[in-house]
Amino acid sequence: MRQKIQKHLDTLMPQRRETSKKLKEKIHESVSSVLPISLLVLVLGVVIVPINLSTMSLFVVGAAMLIFGMGLFTLGADMAMVPMGNHLGAQITKSKNVWFLAGIAFLMGLLITIAEPDLTVLANQVQGVSNLTLILTVAVGVGIFLVVALLRILFQWKLSYILVGLYVLVFLLGMLIKPEFVPMAFDSGGVTTGPMTVPFILALGVGVANVRSGKNAQDDSFGLVALCSVGPILAIMIISLFFPHLDNVPTENMTPAVATTHDLRATYAHAFPHYLWEIFMALSPVIAFFFIFQIFSLHLPWSEIKRIIVGLVYTYVGLVLFLTGVNVGFLPMGDYLGKQLAGLDYNWILIPLGMLMGYMVVAAEPAVHVLNEQVEQVTSGAISKSVMMKTLSIGVAISVSLAMTRVLTGISVWYFLIPGYAIALVLTFFTDPIFTAIAFDSGGVASGPMTATFMLPLAMGACGAVGGSILEDAFGLVAMVAMTPLIAIEALGLVYRIKMKKTETLAQPEPAQPDQAQDVDDEIIDV
Known about the structure:
Layout: H1 2-47, H2 53-94, H3 98-114, H4 117-124, H5 131-155, H6 159-174, H7 181-192, H8 197-212, H9 217-220, H10 224-240, H11 261-298, H12 302-342, H13 350-361, H14 366-378, H15 385-409, H16 414-427, H17 433-446, H18 449-466, H19 470-474, H20 477-507, H21 514-526
Helix pairs in contact: 1-2, 2-8, 2-11, 2-12, 2-14, 3-5, 3-11, 4-5, 5-8, 5-10, 6-10, 7-10, 7-17, 7-20, 8-14, 10-17, 11-12, 12-18, 13-15, 14-15, 14-17, 15-18, 15-20, 16-20, 17-20
């Protein structure tokens, strides 16, 4: 008996050491991701706008929670969410019944979207449509388009054609609805693909593609997030036809009063139960699906199940810490900075500062790290995590600067979305299919909880300070953040394609010159 226990412990120790090593790596990554935006905010508080003690203390604690939460979440996603999605995707694809696959896909898309924390944040900021109506509408949109995404892989439909058709429909329908619904519809498409949905949907796509696509598995592994982001836009536009108008969002102070360390502790302690329950409800449908399949069809070994359970614990704790920190600490700071910066005589500074914040904030999105990891693995290192991160950062920096320009000037979001998406859709015919899929996936991934709870409140606070329309001028920031990475990643794809062509050209042997060939012939004849 002792020998068995000792043998079991001997097998566990290397696993624990490996997990501990990976956790340290993930924490180090999250420090390098969260620290830049945190330091920028602190510098702004010293140099440009004085920040009150309540907001600053909440922000500092929130930043620490973001660091540990992101580290735990990304490790948990690697250990649990990605393997679960891979196994489920592969298993449901083995069924020859298309209706069964479609039903399971719709149900998964519906349930996981209802529980997506980012969507709840957006729903709370929209007045005139009930939270339940908005969330259910978006969830149905995601469910339907998750089915479309999986059928695309099974029947080898070309992604670029589908995207062109869908976005033409989106813009035609957008011309018919009331202007205040347009930014909110596009924003819903961005926030839907958050930290809960992205790891699972990405892994689901990889599992399905590996079973059905053969040589095209690499190209078809991505694109699910892209299509799932279109569903909410169309769904919101359709229901907007039945609502007379939206009420403008109030911009009252979002910062709780914190005078002592006791108040600080009480503020976070009050928020914890809410996010403990919210993340439990978010993870429950996915866990239930997985274990039902495990019992009836997967039959994975106990060693892998234990690893997945540990990963789910990391995912749960990490998301609770992350979302508590970002909602309690970063949301009030975004609102406060927006109001203060927009109130300056030189409020144009919002545009370059927005660009700088956008460049930094995308690195703090947990789902971005999951996407970059998947891209590097699927492409066998041809597209590295660092290249993806830099490209996404540039894209988001441009989008936030344009969003701040809208806040200060009141320019319609159409003047940015129509040419932006037109460029992105045209580029789909000039880049490799995998870059098209990754680009449209990255747009949904980049617009996560940091965008919804820090950058959007920044825009709302600034918009309220300059007297603009919150619905038409501040909303739309998430849509902009979801748009510019498309162009940036596709541009990266064009560069990659040009380099590959040059490499192939250099690798080909040069043909013999006519004169040289004639000399050779003469020599042979002379001999």
